[in-house]
UniProtKB/TrEMBL annotation:
Keywords: Disulfide bond, Glycoprotein, Repeat, Signal, Sushi. Coiled coil: none annotated. This is P-selectin-like. The keyword Disulfide bond applies. It holds the Pfam family Sushi. Residues 1-22 form the signal peptide. InterPro entries: Compl-Cell_Adhes-Reg (IPR050350), Sushi/SCR/CCP_sf (IPR035976), Sushi_SCR_CCP_dom (IPR000436). Residues 22-86, 87-144, 145-206 form the Sushi domain. Disulfide bonds join C57-C84, C177-C204. It comes from Salmo trutta. The gene is im:7151449.
Length: 297
């Protein structure tokens, strides 16, 4: 009976001790990728009653608010209050003729930036940079575009060029010809933003070898819409003066009308010509000859 009561008391005591010293499992934070356990917490295998688990912000994140510690109570962990946010790399260092184009993340951890140079400049180094936990990756700079060294032309020379060996974007090279030669093409070329010149090299030609361009003479003729009219009258010694009327259309003789012409009329006098038209004179020799033939009959 004595042994039975002793074992009962010991069993009750063991149950009390066990329940009062419950351990917690390894702490975990589900659905939150911004926080992680510290190395000290990861090295522990047991988390007895009252022990603590410590967390920290993940790589690329920094503490915004809340405690990093949780406590094991009755086999359960307290709620983690740590809140972390992305680190901000800030704008990359300013460089001459260089700007950046950022993605939707801006300058926060994980963001990317594309280096863009001004017109006439090209990127040297990293074309893209990324925001890491330690800052922006790589380095970028912009260097001016250069063209090939200009060359001389036959029977000519470079009259003006920059002092540097390789012309830079925007530089101009001037050409001229020797005496007795004339320049064909552009007298100057310029270095473009793509590293090429904006024009072919000019040529110098002997002035005697250049064919003369034929001259073109332009003329315009205006035709009057009013038909020309010619009236010729002859005064004779006859009592019945003969009259000849000639009407012309479009610079031609249209019809002849002869009235009161006698066979014995002696024609003396003069012919009067009236011309209506654009500065045109019409000879009526045919009409005169006809008149003379009729008079001499």
């Amino acid at each position: 009976m004595f042994y039975s009561n002793s074992w009962t008391k010991c069993l009750i005591c063991l149950i009390f001790i066990t329940s009062g010293n419950s351990e917690c499992p390894i702490p975990q934070v589900e659905g939150n990728q911004n926080v992680v356990l510290t190395n000290d917490a990861l090295l522990k295998n047991d988390f007895p009653e009252g022990s603590e688990g410590t967390f920290q912000c993940a790589n690329g994140y920094m503490k915004e608010q809340g405690s990093e510690r949780i406590t094991c109570t009755s086999g359960e962990w307290s709620t983690l209050e740590l809140i972390c946010k992305k680190k901000d790399c800030g704008a990359p260092k300013e460089m001459p003729h260089l700007t950046y184009e950022f993605n939707k993340e801006g300058t926060l951890f994980g963001a990317t930036a594309r280096a863009i140079c001004d017109k006439g400049y090209q990127v040297q180094g990293s074309s893209y940079r990324q925001c890491y936990a330690t800052g922006w990756s790589g380095r970028s700079r912009c260097e001016v575009v250069t063209c090939e060294e200009p060359i001389d032309i036959m029977n000519g020379m470079i009259s003006e060029k920059p002092a540097k060996q390789f012309p830079e974007y925007g530089d101009v090279i001037q050409y001229s010809c020797d005496e007795g030669y004339t320049l064909i093409g552009n007298k100057s070329i310029q270095c473009n933003e793509d590293g090429e010149y904006n024009s072919f090299l000019p040529e110098c030609k002997d002035v005697n070898d250049i064919p003369l361009k034929p001259k073109t003479i332009s003329a315009s003729i205006t035709t009057s819409t009013v038909p020309p009219t010619i009236q010729a009258s002859i005064t004779t010694t006859s009592t019945v003066p003969p009259t000849i009327q000639v009407s012309g259309r479009h610079h031609g003789i249209g019809e002849h009308d002869i009235n009161a012409v006698t066979t014995n009329a002696a024609a003396v006098g003069s012919v009067i010509c009236i011309v209506i038209g654009p500065s045109m004179r019409l000879l009526v020799s045919d009409a005169m000859e006809t008149l003379r033939q009729n008079v001499n009959k």
